[in-house]
Amino acid sequence: MAGCLFIIWTASAQEVSIQKERKHEIKINALNLVLGNPELDYEYLINKNSGVGLSVNVNMDKNEILPYNYMVTPFYRLYVGNRDAAGFFFEGSLTVLEEDLSIYNQDGTITYSKDIGFGPGVAIGAKFLIKSSIIFEFYGGVGRNFSARDYGATTFPRIGVSIGKRF
What we know:
By secondary structure, the protein is mostly beta strands. The protein has one domain (22-166): Beta Barrel (Porin), CATH 2.40.160.20. It is 14% helix and 57% strand. The protein has helices at residues 2-20, 30-34; strands spanning 24-29, 39-47, 50-58, 70-79, 87-104, 110-130, 134-144, 155-166. The protein has an eight-stranded antiparallel β-barrel with strand order 1-2-3-4-5-6-7-8. The radius of gyration is 21 Å and the shape is elongated. The relative contact order is 0.18. Residues 4-19 have low confidence and may be disordered.
């Protein structure tokens, strides 16, 4: 009888600890927000060393610092720190973006068009976890736009200083 009670107690204790794990993060990129390109990130923590996520960036001010109308970036992160999904990380991503192009023709006219680009990217960064639920992270990297033509950008930045919440 005591053995059955121990097994039931152990199983219920494991269920409670799994329910209390925080595996979701939502973040806003404060650096891009200041630049007029609000970016919102969601990350799901697979385990203590890795996570997958999605980043959406919209260029509201049409500035030239990040010359894209929008960027959608699914990413994978590998954490190398001792804390759960925190510390230094390496990121691999695949970005889809739209940019406005101004093509200067030989006859002196300008043609305007939109171009959809895509390509892989890499970044490195660090994530700091405060009181097990507040997140501060910074990262930097670059991506390659494979669909860029002679007049489009062939690379794109992946930069950020983000704050958010783990839940």
